[in-house]
Design brief:
Layout (H helix, E strand, L loop, with lengths): L8 E2 L5 H7 L9 H8 L9 H5 L6 H9 L3 H11 L3 H7 L6 H4 L12 H14 L14 E5 L3 H12 L3 E6 L7 H4 L10 H10 L4 E5 L9 H7 L2 E4 L5 E2 L13 E3 H10 L8 E2 L1 E5 L3 H12 L4 E5 L11 H9 L2 E4 L2 E9 L2 E12 L5 E11 L2 E4 L3 E2 L3 H4 L8 E2 L2 E2 L12 E3 L11 H19 L4
Parallel strand pairs: 2-3, 2-5, 3-4, 5-19, 7-15, 9-10, 9-15, 10-11
Antiparallel strand pairs: 1-8, 6-16, 12-13, 13-14, 17-18
């Protein structure tokens, strides 16, 4: 059957009540009874492997013991001391490959303690009760600029404020939160939790916010280095990798997944978002999974995710891959896009070439091709650091490594009094929890420097 030349991309494919149901919280929170039962499963290990697996080194056995003994607020404080964004991380961390993977109960005969859900139970309880467990130290008179209000920037700003420094956060967007606000699937963080957590972080005081301020456009690194005692860069990855195929920029229906997810997250009425009847997603990471599942939940009838290698090579975890398939997404492996086929200016099909590994383990095309009809194509093949805002017209340039900002173990860059962390640094692992840790480490290093410590 030949597809119509006009792409079938439309809004309102589902009723409002269907969309509301589709975007409900995918992990309903534990109630107190379930939290007590789950916490009782923990062995409270000494030198617990789950703690070693947590980038922020949360004392997991200790906070679970506190929940089990009825001290939920104490458990939350223990979590937030290590990870100020513990509420969001409880929702989005790939616990199946971090703490829960290392749980001693994670065996073929048993299952790991649900650490993520217990963490959410504790932190949500504290926030819902209006408790704020942190106070600022005596003012130091030092001023720090934080560029980027995502996980790394928020973590750094909060710890610096707690240590008595005055912080100004500059962010290019209208809201703080970074990927927590603009880049995570809507069903993972409901009820505007990202902004509630931002408000929680800022409530310590000593942090001022300037939104709509982009580095390289409204402010420069030279200016910040002149006006502040220290600078932290939590810039994230603002560039999107291209397919490099003819028609990519010209054909309608070919879109960047990151931008569409941002629009979805900010939409007051998700039913007004236009989505294709037949959707193709190209990529193998969390963004690819998120866009594939969300277009399905918006009413796309046929969603196919195509990845060039094997399932185990996808950066999306096995849990995410399974979740996508349960939600009706078809995943095809061992294929790469080679041609976008359009008609009357709109994408009509994507032609793929089957791939394989040669005798040296390199990915190669086999010459065997197939086409998938589509109305909508989403590119989700990774993001990249854009260096122009930091190095474009600067007097001194930052050293880069692997296309990102080079830092040492204290997140110090090559420039005096400039630190960086999160996805924009060469050592980054592109996880929210790692960004939080980077910001925390940088804040303590900045504090030592500003106090003149050796």
């Amino acid at each position: 059957m030949t597809q119509s030349a006009t792409p079938d991309i439309a809004a309102g494919r589902l009723r409002p009540d269907e969309i509301a149901a589709n975007f409900e919280d995918i992990k309903p929170p534990l109630d107190r009874k379930k939290a007590l039962i789950e916490s009782s499963r923990c062995y409270f290990c000494h030198d617990a492997p789950c703690v070693e697996a947590c980038p922020t080194s949360i004392d997991i056995p200790n906070f679970i013991r506190m929940i089990n003994t009825g001290n939920t607020l104490g458990a939350a404080e223990k979590i937030l001391e290590a990870n100020i964004l513990g509420g969001m991380c409880a929702r989005v961390c790939p616990t199946e490959i971090l703490c829960e993977d290392k749980c001693v109960r994670n065996t073929s005969e048993d299952k790991p303690v649900n650490i993520g859900m217990l963490q959410r139970f504790a932190v949500d309880h504290l926030m819902e009760n209006g408790r704020y467990p942190f106070t600022r130290q005596a003012p130091t008179g030092k001023r720090v600029a934080v560029v980027g209000g995502g996980p790394a920037g928020l973590s750094c700003a909060h710890r610096l404020a707690m240590l008595g420094h005055d912080v100004t956060i500059f962010d290019a967007r209208d809201k703080l939160g970074g990927l927590n606000e603009y880049g995570i699937a809507a069903y993972k963080t409901v009820n505007n939790f990202a902004q509630a957590e931002v408000d929680f972080v800022l409530s310590i005081g000593g942090i001022s916010v300037k939104t709509g301020q982009a580095l390289g456009r409204d402010i420069t690194l030279d200016q910040l280095r002149r006006d502040f005692d220290a600078v932290f860069l939590g810039l994230g990855l603002s560039g999107v990798n291209a397919l490099g195929l003819e028609g990519e920029e010209q054909l309608s229906g070919v879109m960047d997944a990151v931008g569409y997810i941002a629009d979805l997250r900010q939409a007051s009425d998700k039913g007004k978002l236009k989505v294709g009847r037949k959707v193709v997603v190209i990529g193998g990471g969390n963004t690819a999974i998120d866009i594939a599942v969300q277009t399905k939940k918006l009413g796309a009838e046929d969603v196919t995710l195509v990845y060039r290698r094997a399932p185990e090579n996808m950066s999306a975890t096995w849990h995410e891959q399974e979740f996508a398939q349960i939600n009706g997404v078809k995943i095809k492996h061992w294929a790469r896009p080679v041609r976008l086929i359009g008609h009357n200016g709109a994408v009509k099909e994507v032609e793929f070439e089957r791939t394989a590994l040669d005798d040296r383990g390199r990915l190669v095309g086999t010459g065997d091709t197939f086409a998938i009809p589509c109305d909508h194509v989403f590119k989700a093949i990774g993001q990249k650091f854009v260096k122009d805002p930091v190095n474009g017209k600067a007097r001194e340039s930052l050293d880069l490594a692997d296309g990102k900002i080079a830092v040492n173990e204290e997140m110090k860059t090559s420039l005096a009094n400039v630190w960086a962390g999160g996805d924009c640094v060469a050592s980054g692992t592109d996880l929210t929890v790692q960004g939080v840790e980077d910001g925390k480490v940088a804040a303590h290093a900045i504090d030592r420097t500003l106090r003149g410590a050796k």
